[in-house]
Each structure stands twice: as C-alpha cells, then as structure tokens.
Amino acid sequence: MTISTTRHLWLGLAATCLLACGGTEPPASGGSGGSSSSTGGHGSSSGGTTGSGGTTSTGGTTSTGGTTSSGGTTSSGGSTASGGVTASGGTTSSGGTIGSGGTTGAGGTTGSGGTTGAAGTKGSGGVNSSGGTSSGGMNAGGRPGGTAGRNGSGGATGTGGSGSGAGGSAPAPGGAKSVAYIGCSMAYNIGTGYKRVGGKVMWNSDSYQTSAMVVQNWTSSSSSSWSLFDQKMQSIGGKDKVTAVMIQICIFSSRATDDEIKQMITSARAHTNAGTKLYLVGQPQYEAGHECSLAGTGGAKWTDDEAKKIAADTTQNVTYLGQFILDSTKGEVSSDSCHATSTGEDVMGKQAMAFFGG
C-alpha cells in the first residue's frame, strides 16, 4: 500500500492502516415431497366353493375301489374329488379366483390393499392419504408452500434464502459504484482488492485514501473524513448513484463506545439519500490465535461482535453484513499483523464481490 504525504501527518500512531474482511452466505436447502405406499391383502377363504373333497364324499361316487373308487373317475384324485374341479385345489379353491388371492379377497379390488383399501386410491397410501398428495404431495412439499416445497423452509424463500441470516449475502444494490464505504485503511484494502479482481458495483480506493480513519473520525458529519467521502461521491455522479453504504468499525486499542458507533451511522444517513441501505461490518477477522496489534488483544473480534450487537438494535435500522477474513499463514497479512498484503487485498476483494456482486 502506497504511503501518501497525508499519512505522514499521523505518524506516531500505533500503526499505519486498518482493514476489514468478510464472509459468505450459505445456500438455501431444498424441500422433500411425500410418498405413497400400499399393502397387499390375503384371501378370504381357504377352501373351494362347496367342500374340501368331492361333491358328495371324499372318495368315488359309490365305492372306494370301483369305477368311482378312490382311484376312479370321481375318487379322491377324480374330477370331483379333493383334487377335482371344485376341490381344495380346484378352480375356486384356496388358490382360485375367489380365494385368498382372489379378486374380492383382502388383496382384491375392495380389500385392504384394493382401490379403496388402506393402500388404495383413497387409502392410507392413496391420493388423499398420509402418503399421498395431501400430506406429502403437492400441497405439503409442493409449489404452494408445503413443508419442504419451493416456498418451504428449505425453499427459495426459506430460512436459508439469499437475504436471510447473519452474514448472508447482501442483495446486489444496482449499478456501478452504487455501494459506498467508510472505514480505515482496511476498508481501503478492500476497495483496492475489489478493483483489482474486476469489481464495479462497490467503490474502489481511487482518490479515496481512508488510512487511520477509525470510528471517531466519522462521528461528526462535518469531519474531514466525510468531506473526503463527499468528494468521492461527487466524482462518481452524486448521492443519487449511492444505494448502499458499508460502514466499517475500525479501532485502535482504545476502541469506541456504542454511542460513537451510532453517531457514525447517523452521519452516514446525513450524507446519503433517505432509504439508502446501511451495512455494518467489523475489521477483518483472522485465523485462530492471530491478533491485530493495532486494535489490541481481542480488538479485531470486538469490532465484529459490536457490529452484530448494534445491527440487532432495531432503532438503528442497519444490517450486519458479515465478515471479511484473512489468513496470515497464507501470506494474506502484512508484517504489522493487521493490514492485508496484495494477496490479502485480492482475497477480500473477492469476498466483497460475494456480498455485493461484481
């Protein structure tokens, strides 16, 4: 980062610049529809129509060994015997048409597994049943807003939708340079990286050097920091071009008060049109165990926690944006332990694109 003449005016500060980082939004999860099931029935009679044997006796027509004996035409193996046409193995026997597997049996058309049975069209697994269209079907998980449908909790407008949840992606505000930002040199790092990776929706750092501009530099709407903001805004076409502002909470080890942060928010409204969306963000967050020395021990995390807390205050009408994240083990943080290297600037520039678009 180029050190300007202006920066020499504030030499003696604990360090040069502060920077900020961001995170990404989880995807929305999809819904699941219902399913239908059916159960087959069993037969209603185990034997034939008349008896378990032949028409009259278990043997032949008259005797056991004669023409109609047990081996005769109508014997136990004969036409009307136990294996005969109407016997237990006959046409209407237990395996017959009207038997346990028959048409009107428990598994038949009107049986428990039939059309109107438990698994039938209107049964428990049918069109209007618990596994059918009603509870698991079009109206439960379907397009009109079922429990797992398009408009359900996992659907396009559900709890995991694009604009929901802390840290989720901010809706793209619109045209080129429509997202302004205020903050310290860590905001400057973001603007520099955003331009380098091809971003156009958010402001870049051209002629907008915000080094060492912590919260207290932005509390008064007539400060030199806001004069710099106004100059930048005029260079891109005036306040009508700005539809959103990213407000970065930057601190030295002395930190800031809640009232000072709220004054910074009030000043941002004074320099933009009514209805301009305000997003609150802290300094960049780092990998576990890393500290930004300029902000003091725990200071970087404090700015993120503070952004969440102030955004939760409904009187402020601001939205928590999320986190910008740097990893010093990957060469993304400079030797001062706070600012981004050019690699880190590009990382945060891409994170800004994830929030606001390219």
Characterization of this structure:
- The chain has helices spanning 5-8, 138-141, 185-196, 224-235, 258-270, 299-312, 342-356, and strands at 179-182, 244-248, 277-281, 319-322.
- It has a domain at 8-26 and 164-356: Rossmann fold, CATH 3.40.50.
- α5 (258-270) links the parallel β2 (244-248) and β3.
- α3 (185-196) crosses α7 (342-356).
- Residues 1-169 have low confidence and may be disordered.
- The protein contains seven helices and four strands, in the order ααβααβαβαβα.
- It is mainly alpha-helical and 358 residues long.
- The protein has a four-stranded parallel β-sheet, covered by helices on one side.
- The chain is globular and about 40 Å long.
